[in-house]
């Protein structure tokens, strides 16, 4: 399995931006489709975004579409989540996730992910 470590969380005012990073190790990173999830206190973990192995296919939750952008750098074994126009309701622990991919175009569904990071906290103040 691949090991995942998130970073970049913090406290930001509403309307601000943050960029989350996820560093991967342990396996060939470029063979993995990647995703971001989040979990707010008292709520279920929810899907945020996903990106295929090759980076050409992406998917977003309706609640973040147009504000968040997922990207990856296979040479650096990293995936990123650029978050703009942040809202208080974006406050959550954000988790990086991975699943082995058989093609460069494979885009996993939210329940397909097999490896998870420890999470990084994002707090958006109003």
Task: Give an overview of the whole structure.
The model has no long low-confidence stretch (mean pLDDT 95). By secondary structure, the protein is mainly β. Strands 2, 4, 5, 6, 9, 10 and 11 form a 7-stranded mixed β-sheet that branches. The chain has a 4-stranded antiparallel β-sheet with strand order 1-3-8-7, with no helix packed on it. The protein has strands spanning 3-7, 10-13, 18-25, 32-39, 46-51, 58-60, 68-73, 78-83, 92-100, 115-116, 120-125.
Mean pLDDT metric: 95
Distance between the termini: 39 Å
Q: Major sheet, described briefly?
A: 7 strands, mixed
Class by SSE composition: mainly beta
Helix count equals 0
Number of strands: 11
Radius of gyration: 13 Å
C-alpha geometry: globular
Helix content: under 10%
Percent in strands: over 45%
Low-confidence stretches: none
Spell the H/E element sequence: EEEEEEEEEEE
